[in-house]
Amino acid sequence: MNHPIPNASIFSLFLLLISTPWAHPLASLQEDFSQCLSENSEISIPFSTALITPNNSTFLPFLQSSAQNLRYLVPTAPKPEFIFTPLHDSHVQAAVICSKQLGVHLRVRSGGHDYEAASYVSQIETPFVVVDLAKLRSVIVDIQDNSTWAQAGASIGEVYYRIAEKSKTHGFPAGLCTSLGVGGHITGGAYGTMMRKYGLGADNVIDAKIIDVSGRVLDRAAMGEDLFWAIRGGGGGSFGIILWWKIKLVPVPETVTVFTVPKTLETGATKILHKWQQVAATELDEDLFMRVVIQVSEDSKTANKTVTTLYQAQFLGGADRLLDVVQTSFPELGLTKKDCTETSWLKAVMYIAGYPSSTPPEVLLEGKSTFKNYFKAKSDFVKDPIPESGLEGFWKRLMEEESPLVILNPYGGMMGRISETAIPFPHRKVLFKIQYLTTWQDEKEDEGKHMDWIRKLYNYMAPYVTMFPRQAYVNYRDLDLGVNKKSNISFIEASAWGKRYFKDNFNRLIKIKTKVDPDNFFRHEQSIPPLPLPARSRTRGHHHTKQNS
Ligand SMILES: Cc1cc2nc3c(=O)[nH]c(=O)nc-3n(C[C@H](O)[C@H](O)[C@H](O)COP(=O)(O)OP(=O)(O)OC[C@H]3O[C@@H](n4cnc5c(N)ncnc54)[C@H](O)[C@@H]3O)c2cc1C
Ligand SMILES: *[C@@H]1O[C@H](CO)[C@@H](O)[C@H](O)[C@H]1NC(C)=O
Ligand SMILES: *[C@@H]1O[C@H](CO)[C@@H](O)[C@H](O)[C@H]1NC(C)=O
Ligand SMILES: *[C@@H]1O[C@H](CO)[C@@H](O)[C@H](O)[C@H]1NC(C)=O
Ligand SMILES: *[C@@H]1O[C@H](CO)[C@@H](O)[C@H](O)[C@H]1NC(C)=O
Ligand SMILES: *[C@@H]1O[C@H](CO)[C@@H](O)[C@H](O)[C@H]1NC(C)=O
């Protein structure tokens, strides 16, 4: 049944059409696809488990398994024709070859954390299929070489666990949330608690294996420095399918210190946050990453609605030196020794990810996320401290929403020393990034109300954040910034979001895309577009293309 001869599949489609009018005519797509896969894969594929069709009861649970944003799992959200879960690199190659041959739109999913579900929902065309890399999650750590090969389907938490298993003094500077898939995460940048000391995950990639549009596996030498540049920060789903990353491990001390200190409006949140903005990126030691998590809560004494700012930190060193650092540059926080917990790097990772301290680290091997909800998010970057009056208006707006969440993430240190063009990620010389979220738990909630609220908040913040372009983080994908409406998108439309995510690096990304995938096979709502044919011939021979003039 999984290996039909072509005539039989045409015949059975014919039978389906005449005898069962309710049958989905695309049934033959699945058959043709599995036929093509078995012809194009050196290693045989166990189709009964690797090709998950909607008529199987495991289809929806599997589709939902790693998906993070419940907004895109509602019954009306577009669903793939089937999900293919390769067990071997060559299966992924076959999937690219067959999608191209059969002309079916393909999406690729690693950890499923895409904010707008680009890895498993296509809003621009149907039918589409999902290639899910969840079963490709090897992590090969080489401590002598200070390096690791991580397969795209592994979670970043598994990578951290496997490193820590081999060494107490090696780590990797990527995301805080441990269930992120390394496939999508690192290709969009990947910031975390060690970014001020070592830069982004993408800054610490030394090699990769990617499947290109022809189904070839290319390493760094074979793909060339242009494509290798593009995949380190240019965002997922535009250039090919990343199979493996080779990452450079960084030194971490045996003792790492963490703390969380809350400040409410009643305990001076506004003035303290004003000071944090002036020191977090510029004055505090690079070993210290102190983010601010902002929520609306009830004041414990008055039961009034208030804003809580949580100062949550990881310090690469012991508590005594940490206290020195904070008391020198940021005494307003009032940090004391009893706020501080000394622990290992891996336990610090788990603390920041929100696991209770008694959780065994093996939970990281499950690659499961700790929470899921309906959410909408947006991001901004800040270069000059927001004045207290600006913060006060901000608090007022936060208190109008049920479950707002805002996270301020300090830059400085190594981030500011890496050039804006070193990789596509351009946000280097800023004080901090803002992430705004609104979340809800009930499917029946009015989504529009929450969307309106966050869009208005975003408008309110305009005077305080980067402009021309108003920068945004590609890993916090935001479809409000613009969407590729057709498979044949113009790059001028795309620059609405492209310039915000990549600044002028967007131009180089377009050129590389035009070279490696001119027919735009790898595409989604916000994938890098190739130059249209007329523009290609116009700019031939010129070193710089002037897309926006
Ligand atoms: C709860 C939560 C916490 C987060 N915390 C952080 C954080 O601390 N730091 C940070 O930097 N970001 C963070 N992010 C954002 C995260 O980095 C991005 O959502 C990232 O794209 C997730 O990668 P993924 O593989 O899990 O997602 P997916 O949804 O699988 O993929 C994301 C995009 O990449 C493409 N893609 C997936 N796999 C591949 C592949 N193998 N090759 C090529 N393209 C691929 C997809 O098609 C999609 O376009 C967070 C997100 C969430 C939901
Ligand atoms: C599910 O659908 C596929 C493709 O249409 C078909 O080959 C298979 O027989 C179906 N399985 C069941 C149990 O109906
Ligand atoms: C449904 O999927 C499961 C797991 O992927 C597989 O074991 C089972 O054989 C499938 N059932 C049918 C009827 O295809
Ligand atoms: C690995 O890192 C350590 C510590 O940074 C360094 O001393 C050593 O030379 C590195 N080894 C290699 C092979 O790069
Ligand atoms: C907060 O609570 C106190 C005591 O319950 C009350 O007097 C005060 O007016 C409240 N403040 C606001 C801003 O609601
Ligand atoms: C793409 O768009 C161009 C002009 O915008 C048009 O000439 C061309 O036919 C389109 N191609 C496809 C495949 O739609």
From TrEMBL:
Q: Where is the composition biased (Basic residues)?
A: 537-549
Q: Does the keyword Disulfide bond apply?
A: yes
Q: Name one GO biological process term.
A: cannabinoid biosynthetic process
Which GO molecular function terms does the record list? FAD binding; oxidoreductase activity
Q: Region (Disordered): which ranges?
A: 523-549
Which keywords does this Swiss-Prot/TrEMBL entry list?
Answer: Disulfide bond, FAD, Flavoprotein, Glycoprotein, Signal
For whether the record's keyword set contains Disulfide bond, the answer is: yes
Q: Which residues form the FAD-binding PCMH-type domain?
A: 76-252
Cofactors that this protein relies on: FAD
Signal peptide feature range: 1-23
Top-level lineage group: Eukaryota
In terms of InterPro entries, this protein maps to: BBE, FAD-bd_PCMH, FAD-bd_PCMH-like_sf, FAD-bd_PCMH_sub1, FAD-bd_PCMH_sub2, Oxid_FAD_bind_N
* One Pfam family here: BBE
Describe the family membership recorded for this protein in Swiss-Prot or TrEMBL: Belongs to the oxygen-dependent FAD-linked oxidoreductase family.
Q: What is this protein called?
A: FAD-binding PCMH-type domain-containing protein
Species assigned in the record: Malus baccata
